[in-house]
């Protein structure tokens, strides 16, 4: 089942109108990056976001922790020295939102720093808090971020093994992995370690069919090997059509 990423789709609309737009476009589920400007948003901001999701009648299936100033190049706080308290405070806020909305997948971007003992401790903290709400934490390899150290599935698997928590999985973004030259065929052999999948075509990061990536072939392999989770549509619209869903 596909879900719409509200940070990439329907961006011509104010954030709080996007859940309804997704519903009108035929999506029953949505995901989103951290939807607030700060790690600790005001209560009224949180309530407005939650109401927008609930009123639209869509399910929130993916939510990112606060990742810093993304436009400026930040890619997460998990490995950021000196921001441990901010990270952990945000974890508790994020998990509380997820619990109220029934979201079970939380994306903790690694950050642009090497993996240290503190990084692993932060991930374990997030995993343990998420587990209390029946949620999982996912780690996402990224492209286009030179300082970001997690670029392949294998690098993510190594960190996941070190964290040693059953609810920490890979977020397999097929676009990022393909752009980084990773072998997407190996994913089907590690379905038990995959917590969420996202798609965009490559090159270009447009919707399926605008590039050269065999998206539906790779999704079919994942499904055949037991992946039953959501697939997030996280792309930059080119045709502004959702006809690609008919090919799945």
Task: Throw out a few tags for this protein.
globular, eight-stranded parallel beta barrel, 8 strands, 248 residues, 15% strand, Xyl_isomerase-like_sf, alpha/beta, TIM barrel protein, single chain, 7 helices
Describe the structure.
With 248 residues, this protein is of the alpha/beta class. The chain has 7 helices and 8 strands, in the order βαβαβαβαβαβαβαβ. The protein has an 8-stranded parallel beta barrel with strand order 1-2-3-4-5-6-7-8, surrounded by 4 helices. α1 (18-24) runs parallel beside α2 and α3 packs parallel to α4. The radius of gyration is 17 Å and the shape is globular. The relative contact order is 0.13. The model has no long low-confidence stretch (mean pLDDT 98). Residues 20-236 form the Xylose isomerase-like TIM barrel domain. This is TIM barrel protein.
- Average of the residue pLDDT scores: 98
Q: What is the β-strand count?
A: 8
Low-confidence stretches: none
| Structural Rg | 17 Å
β-strand percent reads 5-15%
For the largest beta-sheet, the strand count, sense and barrel status come to:
8 strands, parallel, barrel
Order of helices and strands: EHEHEHEHEHEHEHE
Order of strands in the sheet with most strands: 1-2-3-4-5-6-7-8
Structural class: alpha/beta
CA distance, first residue to last residue = 9 Å
Helix content: 25-40%
Task: Name the overall outline.
Answer: globular
Per DSSP, the total helix count is 7
Quaternary arrangement of the chains shown?
A: single chain
InterPro entries: HyI-like (IPR026040), Sugar_Epim/Isomerase (IPR050417), Xyl_isomerase-like_sf (IPR036237), Xyl_isomerase-like_TIM-brl (IPR013022)
Pfam family, one: AP_endonuc_2
Keywords: Isomerase
Protein name: TIM barrel protein
């Amino acid at each position: 089942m596909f879900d719409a990423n509200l940070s990439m789709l329907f961006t011509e609309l104010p954030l709080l109108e996007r859940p309804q737009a997704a519903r009108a476009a035929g999506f029953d589920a949505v995901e989103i990056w951290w939807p607030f400007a700060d790690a600790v948003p005001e209560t009224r901001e949180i309530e407005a976001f939650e109401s927008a999701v609930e009123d639209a009648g869509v399910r929130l299936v993916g939510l990112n922790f606060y990742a810093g100033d993304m436009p400026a190049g930040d890619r997460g706080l998990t490995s950021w020295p000196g921001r441990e308290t901010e990270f952990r405070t945000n974890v508790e806020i994020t998990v509380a939102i997820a619990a109220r909305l029934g979201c079970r997948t939380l994306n903790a971007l690694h950050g642009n720093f090497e993996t240290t003992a503190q990084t692993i401790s932060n991930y374990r903290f997030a995993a343990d808090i998420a587990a209390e709400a029946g949620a999982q934490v996912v780690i996402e390899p990224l492209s286009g971020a030179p300082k970001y150290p997690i670029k392949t599935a294998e690098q993510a698997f190594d960190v996941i093994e070190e964290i040693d928590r059953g609810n920490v999985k890979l977020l397999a973004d097929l676009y990022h992995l393909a752009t980084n030259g990773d072998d997407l065929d190996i994913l089907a052999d590690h379905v038990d370690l995959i917590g969420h999948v996202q798609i965009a075509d490559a090159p270009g990061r447009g919707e399926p069919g605008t590039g050269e990536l065999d998206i539906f072939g790779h999704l079919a392999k994942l499904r055949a090997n037991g992946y039953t989770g959501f697939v997030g549509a996280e792309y930059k619209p080119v045709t502004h059509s959702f006809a690609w869903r008919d090919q799945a």
